[in-house]
Each structure stands twice: as structure tokens, then as C-alpha cells.
Amino acid sequence: MSRIKQLAFNFKQKLFKIYWLTSVVIKSILTVLKSIFILSFPGFARQLNPIYTQKSNPEDRNVLVVSYYSPPYRSSYGTQRVTKYCKYLNDFGWKVTFLTTQPSRDYQIDNLGDRLDPAIDVVRLAGLIDQPLTQKGILPPDDFILWVDEAVEGIRRILESKKIAVIVATAPPYSNMLAAAICTVRSGVPLVLDFRDPWSRVDAGWVMKNPVSKRVSSFLEKLVLGVSARIIMTDEKRYIDDYFVESSERISKKVISITNGYDETDFNCLAGSEEVTASNNRFTISYVGRFYSEQNFKTIMKVMDVWAEKYPEDMQKVIFDYAGGDGQFIKAAHASFCFNDHGYVSHQESIRLRHACDVQLFAMPPEYKAHLFSGKIFEMIRGARPILALTRTDGAVARLLASTRTGLTFSQDDIEHAAMVLKDWFDEWQRTGRVAAQGDAVAIASYSRENLARQLSGVLDDVRLGK
Fold first, then answer.
1. Which CATH number do you get for residue 127?
2. 24 has which bridge partners?
3. Taking all residues of the chain, what is their mean pLDDT, rounded to a whole number?
4. 420 lies in a domain?
5. What pLDDT, on a 0 to 100 scale, did the predictor assign at position 49?
6. 354 and 407 co-located in one domain
7. Are 213 and 230 contained in the same domain?
8. Do 430 and 460 fall into the same domain?
9. pLDDT, tens digit, for every residue of 79-118?
């Protein structure tokens, strides 16, 4: 009898999974079809189902920011950029309303991370629970498509109760932008899109694995771009063809580059220590953040190994400081020098670790596209320690280091030269007690979050005034 009951229970479980999967797929398809209709026929959609907004005056500087992620989510969810935007927009005279979600899982929360400015009016919706197709790369534009209807309703309530002059939607997830675009069409409130990563042309993390889903996602992207007033990309505008599914003159005129950056106030934790060297007796090399892949880590180790093989006596004075979530790679390494694995650390502690070193190490896999920045590289250029980067020499990171005079870039095939630069810096440290930094202070300061948010403030003013 128990065997029959177990079989019956298993059958019911399978039926439930099939029902759940079917309902997710059907609801996703209906949401996509409805979104395509609204964005394809904006005039008709607005007449059919308008959002009645509070009339905004030219002097009103009220902005609605839509982001699925925000503190207390971990910074790995892309929270830093939007958090700093809101902080400085408030300082520049904007009244910010922030529509976001509440974390539903403990592992999503960083209790030591940044918090949203108390002056910001935060409206939180419930976060999604995992569904059968989570992280399968099947649902266009992403797994958050089931959040679109709820987000649209949340935006509608805000637009009907406040005099919002501009909507800003940041992505990923791209469903943020889809929901905001629908509300822009239905309300007439202009939309500014903020792309932290490409949408359909992204090549890591958010990739659509099904070719049909990818085509649908590309079509949604084109429609969302079309109804926007301005489009911000975090990479250089020279890469617009690699970044967006459409880069016509109509779209290109809307596109503005506002990169990621660093927040000067985050460096207050270094008060009084700007000129202190890392160690009196160890040459400290730091790597803070993800390794991206095991192969990327192995490349870093090859550089260290080449140096160790040629000058083994140096290794007695070398320490490799690591902080991040990829400690399993370190544990598997048989290094001839001292490793110090700090594990996951707070944002402020990561800044201290980068400062408490002699050389900062950066690496990004060579298969990554040339336009890609990494958010951490901007905090690295703000530091007073030289950077050795192992990445594409024709890419954005290489140009950033060259223009700010904060480091040198080597391809991941040029292991020998990279190792000898570390050796030269080590010898300089032995002679003088430090490695001299030659950064261009003016060029570095242009990447402060305050200056970048000032650019965004100007964009929002142009949009609200219809320029």
C-alpha cells in the first residue's frame, strides 16, 4: 500500500510541475504578446488604456527610477550604479522615487553594503520566487518577465499620484525596461534607458539560449529603444554597433555614454592612510573580485609562476592577497608564494585591501568583447597603486588605464612580459619601499560617481524640457 501511495504522490508531483511549467509559459507568452502590441501601436494603446498622470510643470524635477535590484541586495546584482545615481540626483535637486523589490532569499542580502539615501522615496514590491525555467535562458527577455505586470501596476500607481517628469529604467534585468516602456506609452511620461550591459547582444549571464527566444528578445529590445527619449550605455559610444540590436541614426541620436565609476566618499575609510605603503616586509599583490573563470585564474597563476621560476628568491617576500567568492581556485593551486584568501568582504574592506597593497592585478578573459568594462576597474584607478591588467590590449580597459596613466595592459598570451613588469615593480619596491604611481588626477576624477551623475542630471533636464 505504501508503494502505491508513493507512486501516487510522485505522479501528483509530476502533474503539479507540468501544470506550473505550463502556466509559466502561457503567462510569459501572453505578457510578451501584450507588450509587443502596446509598443508597436503606442498611439492606439494609449487611447485604449491610458495612465492618467499628475500634470508636471517645467520646474518640477521629479524622477521615477525603476530597478528590480537595489540595496540590501548584494552589489553583484548591479546595485552600486543605481544607488549612487539616486544619491547624487537627490543632491542635484531631483526628487527621486525608487520602484524596486524586496529580497526574498538570505543569500541575496548584503548587510554590510551601501544603503539607499533616506531622502529617497522607496516603493518596494515583492520579489519573484524561482519558477521551473529560472536560469534556463528560455523566457524572453529574461526570467523576470512574470514581474512585468506587477511592475507596470506599481509604476502606474506612482505616475497617478506624483508629478513625475521622467522615468529612468536600468537593466539588467531587461524586464525593468519593458515595464517602464509600457508605462511610457500609456502615460506620455518620457523614458530614459540605462544599460549596464547589452540586451540581446549580451554574451554572458543573460544570454537567450533558445534561437526563437533570442529573436523575440531582440524584437522587444528594438521596440523599447524606439519608444525611449534617451539611451545610456555604460561602455564607450564607439561600440554602439556591438551593444544594441539597432544602431540606426534614429537610435544613435538618443545614445549617450555614461560609464561606471567610483564614489569618492567610499574612500573615506582610508582617512589619513593615502601615503602609507602596503607592507614593510612583503611585496603585496592584490586581486579583489571574481576570477570570471578557472582559465582566467590559471592565466594569473602563469604570470606568477614565470616570475617565480626565474627569480625564486623573490617569492619569499611576495604575498598574493585575494578577496572574493572564488576561493576554490586558490585552494587548488600549488603556489610557490604566499596566498592570503580573505573570502567575501564588504565593499569598504575591498577598498582597504586594494589600498593596502603595492600592485593591483586585474584580469578579464580574452574572449570577452572589447567594449566590456568591469565595475571594479574604476575603483582601482582611483586607488594610489599601479595596475597590471591581463586582458585585451585593444579594449576599453586598456584605453582607460592608458588615458588615466594608472597601469599597463598585457594580452593573456604575453605572460613573459607581464611577469617581468611585476619583477621590475618588485625591484623598485625593494629599492624605495614602494612602487611609484603616475596617475592623471584630472582624468581619474572624470570617472567619479558625482561627475557621472551630473551628466545624468543634465540628460534628465533635457528630456523633461523636451530638448
1. 3.40.50.2000
2. none
3. 90
4. yes
5. 95
6. yes
7. yes
8. no
9. 989 999 999 999 999 999 999 999 888 888 877 677 888 9
> 458 and 417 in one domain?
no
Are residues 243 and 317 located together in one domain of the fold?
no
Cell numbers at residue 203, please?
Answer: 554574451
What pLDDT does 292 receive? 82
pTM given for the model:
0.88
How many separate domains does the chain show?
A: 2
Of 381, 385, 392, the C-alpha closest to 357 is: 385
51 and 182 assigned to the same domain: yes
Residues 6 or more apart whose Cβ sits within 8 Å of residue 292: 363, 364, 365, 368
Domain residues for the domain of 379 are 265-445
Tell me whether residue 343 is in a domain: yes
pLDDT band at 10 (very low <50, low <70, confident <90, very high): low
Domain shared by 193 and 221, yes or no: yes
Residue identified by cell 570570471 is 292
Q: Is residue 342 part of a domain?
A: yes
**What is the amino acid identity at position 147?**
W
Enter the C-alpha cell of residue 246.
539597432
13 within some domain: no
**Strands of 230-233's sheet in order across:** 121-126, 95-102, 62-66, 166-171, 191-195, 230-233, 255-257
% residues pLDDT > 70 (the chain): 93
Peptide bond into 141 cis (omega under 30): yes
pLDDT digits (tens, 9 = 90+) for 363-419: 998 888 888 888 889 999 998 899 999 999 999 999 999 999 999 999 999 999 999
Integer Rg of the chain from CA: 24
